[in-house]
Amino acid sequence: MPRISPILAALVVALPAFAAKVDYNEDVRPILSENCFYCHGPDGNKRKAKLRLDVREDALAHKAFVPGDAEASELVKRLFSTDSEEVMPPPDSHRTISAAQKEILKRWITEGAEYKAHWA
Question: Which residues contact 63 (CB under 8 A, 6 or more apart)?
Answer without folding.
Answer: 72, 73, 74
